[in-house]
Amino acid sequence: MITYVKGLLTTVEESSVVIETGGIGYEILCANPYHFQEDLNKEVRVHTYHYIREDSQNLYGFKKKEDKQLFSQLLNVSGIGPKGALAILGTVSVPEFVSAIEQEDDKYLTKFPGVGKKTARQMILDLKGKLVVWLPDEQNEDTIFYQEDLTSKEKRARMDDAIEALKALGYTDKEVKMVRAELEKGKQGSVDDYVRQGLQLLMKT
Known about the structure:
The protein has helices spanning 65-75, 82-89, 94-102, 106-109, 117-127, 135-143, 152-168, 173-183, 191-204; strands at 4-12, 16-21, 24-30, 43-53, 56-62. By secondary structure, it is an alpha+beta fold.
């Protein structure tokens, strides 16, 4: 099992990143590859899940260990595969998802791509009570923006990367333009912050 990959981030694409280490380039599939845009051409460590099947082997990557653990838990739910698990992780933070599970909010869960009412109920049945250990600490970490003094140029650059990430997920120029207007009214943050906030806004439309 490949637990993580540490090396030079050489490429950020629509669905994956490439990390070079020891002369080998590892393609790692991610929920939101543009979360790593700020680290392009820098050394990074990505938590990975090595997904093995008879006809294929894929590496799935995550910035946070908790995201990897949730991905692993989601794969144990009937009806959820790697693609569906990534779609969920690309839309909400761990504490938001845990809260929905604990509150048995199947209406909220069915907003995720490919999740119907039956799958939502299955997730609640399989996961309720198993994820609460992450809720307190993760909630504090994910809901507070980084307190940085960004210049207008730096904020604009991060916002641009976040908008590109949303487009890569299939949202139209019109949709992301509306979201950007809302994000610019809010607090400053990292690319990851902006992407998560943007996805939350898009889910409400």
